[in-house]
Design a protein that fits this description.
Layout (H helix, E strand, L loop, with lengths): L20 H28 L11 H17 L1 H32 L4 H28 L8 H28 L1 H9 L7 H23 L17 H20 L11 H16 L2 H23 L5 H8 L4 E2 L2 E2 L8 H20 L6 H25 L8 H28 L5 H23 L7 H32 L5
Antiparallel strand pairs: 1-2
Helix pairs in contact: 1-2, 1-4, 1-5, 1-7, 2-4, 2-8, 2-15, 3-4, 3-7, 3-8, 3-15, 5-6, 5-7, 5-12, 9-10, 10-13, 10-14, 10-15, 10-16, 12-14, 13-14, 13-16
The structure holds phenylalanine.
């Protein structure tokens, strides 16, 4: 049918009826996420593993600091990454350069020294800041303003993300953690404690495949993502974005110092100031922006708990869970498969429900409420699990339940977030509002590291309290947001 309209199509398959360029972006992002989640599945485990077993031998608190700052930097750097692509590089070049820096970063992580580890992380964060926002922007660019295929296109793209995230921990977890691969290394006359670095290298191979796919199939993108024409005198805003991001990044990391911990109050005070300031303006634009800042806080709290998958939950899987199915042992990194798996299984149900419900579907603030609610339930489920660890390792099913509930929450909240921002932002400020949204994600991830540092594997009661406190925190946020829904609906007049 689409062929009759002169739109290039594939013969059948998931891309049927979609612009050809979608397959280029789909596979490039699949492999980029393969490398991202393949490395993330190992990150915390590697940091806390004793030096004799090839890890860095650091404490949980150190691991949480590394994790929080790394993931925070990834999102923070997306702000200049998107900005630089819009003004100078174009999305395509930003993706090529970003992807190359990412691959280089993972290969640096394959070098077994502590210096290489931190340089590698910095490179991956920098490269991802260039890659991730721009590849997503190009997906949007494939469709004209009224193109009905846009939402389906983004859903297919989100599948690619999660296929990458699903395959990666299986490969990197096997290489890094399985006795079988360590045996192979020994057989080759190599040090089995080096297995972690084989896992990191595999992540680098994934990104390299992604780059090759992208470079070879770029032609399918038409003129999406090509270099923009630079307006004269455009350097000042760029300098401001770079300096501003650098300053916020610096201050956020500085807040790890006990003397500067008060800086963390900004995570809440900045968005609250935004709400008050814009609500007081009284015009429609101000109302929309006030609503955006309320959702900023909900979004930040969501990721602060959700992103502990890579720290708190990774450690729970490592130390406190019976890692075997039907008597077969498996690497603890494999738990990271569950979130992408549930996305792949559940996303079509959500898409179906939204289409079916049409205008009767919940408004975006209500979807945020539901997202927080399921997230809170997921940590509540971990309270009995934590108590049971007093009797030894617990069943893997607890983590299956946790990831199921969290993924339901993610599917309510995450796809709605970005699209609501594009609707709430006045047209001349879309980029700025997106940047502020990414700041919320960055602080959420930083908070994930801060909260995750409270994890303990040796005190079941303290661990139960740890999960309970966070579940209550999310519960309070959920109730507060429910109370604000009528006001939000008023603020968001004209926007669903
Ligand atoms: N799994 C998602 C991804 O990697 C998580 C995410 C959601 C990241 C929203 C950024 C923004 O893409």
């Amino acid at each position: 049918m689409a062929q009759g309209l002169g739109v290039p199509t594939f013969k059948g398959g998931p891309f049927a009826g979609q612009p050809q360029g979608l397959s280029t972006l789909f596979f490039a992002e699949l492999w980029e996420r393969f490398s991202f989640y393949g490395m993330r599945a190992l990150l915390t485990l590697f940091v806390v593993t004793p030096i004799a077993s090839g890890g860095l031998g650091l404490t949980t608190v150190d691991a949480a600091r590394v994790y929080g700052n790394y993931t925070m930097a990834v999102y923070m750097l997306s702000i200049p990454g998107g900005f630089i692509a819009d003004r100078y590089l174009g999305s395509r070049q930003a993706v090529m350069i970003g992807g190359s820096i990412i691959a280089l970063g993972h290969f640096t992580l394959a070098v077994p020294t502590q210096t290489a580890f931190f340089i590698g992380l910095a490179l991956v964060a920098l490269g991802t800041g260039l890659f991730k926002p721009n590849i997503s922007a190009m997906v949007g660019g494939l469709y004209g303003a009224g193109d009905e295929r846009r939402d389906a296109g983004f859903s297919i793209f989100y599948m690619g993300i999660n296929i990458g995230g699903l395959l990666a921990p299986i490969v990197t977890g096997y290489l890094a953690q399985s006795p079988a691969f360590q045996e192979i290394l020994r057989g080759w006359g190599l040090d089995p404690a080096m297995s972690w670095h084989w896992g990191f290298a595999a992540a680098g191979v994934g990104m390299t495949i992604g780059l090759i796919v992208f470079a070879r199939q770029m032609g399918r993108l038409g003129d999406v993502g090509i270099k923009p024409v630079v307006a004269a005198g455009a350097w000042l805003p760029t300098a401001m974005v770079l300096a501003g991001t650098g300053a916020v990044l610096f201050l956020t990391v500085l807040s790890d110092d006990p003397r500067f911990q008060w800086l963390r109050a900004a995570f809440l005070l900045v968005p609250i100031a935004g709400v008050v300031w814009f609500a007081m303006r009284g015009d429609l634009e101000g109302k929309h922006l006030a609503a955006a800042f309320v959702l900023f806080i909900a979004n930040m709290i969501f990721w602060a708990v959700f992103e502990q998958a890579g720290i708190t939950i990774a450690l729970f899987g490592l130390d406190l869970t019976r890692n075997e199915v039907f008597g077969w042992p498996f690497p603890s990194a494999w738990y990271q498969v569950l979130n992408p798996l549930f996305v792949i299984l559940l996303a079509p149900l959500f898409a179906f429900a939204w289409v079916r419900l049409g205008t009767r579907q919940p408004t975006s603030p209500v979807k945020f409420v539901l997202g927080l609610f399921f997230l809170g339930l997921s940590f509540l489920l971990m309270v009995p699990a934590a108590m049971l660890t007093a009797e030894g390792r617990v069943s893997p099913l607890w983590l299956v339940g946790l990831f199921f509930l969290q993924t339901v929450g993610e599917l309510f909240l995450s796809p709605v977030g970005l699209s609501t921002m594009t609707k709430l932002a006045p047209p001349r400020m879309v980029g700025l509002v997106m940047g502020v949204w990414f700041l919320g994600m960055a602080w959420g991830n930083k908070l994930a590291g801060i909260l995750g540092s409270g994890f303990t594997a040796s005190d079941p009661d303290a661990l139960a309290v740890f999960f309970l406190q966070q579940s209550v925190m999310v519960g309070i946020a959920t109730v507060a947001l429910i109370a604000l829904v009528p006001w939000l609906k008023q603020l968001m007049r004209g926007v669903r």
